[in-house]
Amino acid sequence: MEHAADAPQWLAALENSGVGQAMRQSLYLYPLVEVVHLVGIAALFGSILVLDLRLAGLARFLSAKLLAKHLLRLTWIGFALAVPSGALLFITEATSIARNPAFLVKASLIVLAGANMLLFHIGAWRSVDAWDRDRTPPVAARFAGAASVVLWILVIACGRLIAYF
What we know:
By secondary structure, the chain is mainly alpha-helical. The protein has eight helices and no strands.
């Protein structure tokens, strides 16, 4: 496999590793890992979306705390599937993907989504008892939920666009 002349050596090493070679050479491994990645994304985004919609003010009759508690396991399962499978997909063509504009935007959006979650948890979530059920969440919670939905949709879109850049 040819690498960009200016690619960092560690990216070329990843790409040329046994894992990288196996991912490129196996007829079934890459598609299998891609399916695992898609299932992980579905579980991760699906569970986040449900809670974000509640934070945005929908289904106020549901307890936000109980909903978060029940969805957290699915969120972590999705994360545990999406991250390692995404890393395997990255290793397959590390030197080119690391420079891919869609990948770079995707990675930045994931950081922003994480920052949004962190700010929500140290901010609006601390007052959840006051708006947990049958009340409109505060503006900060509604903003965090809406921002999260937008960020994760953009992450998914950028992930799909990696193949076209």
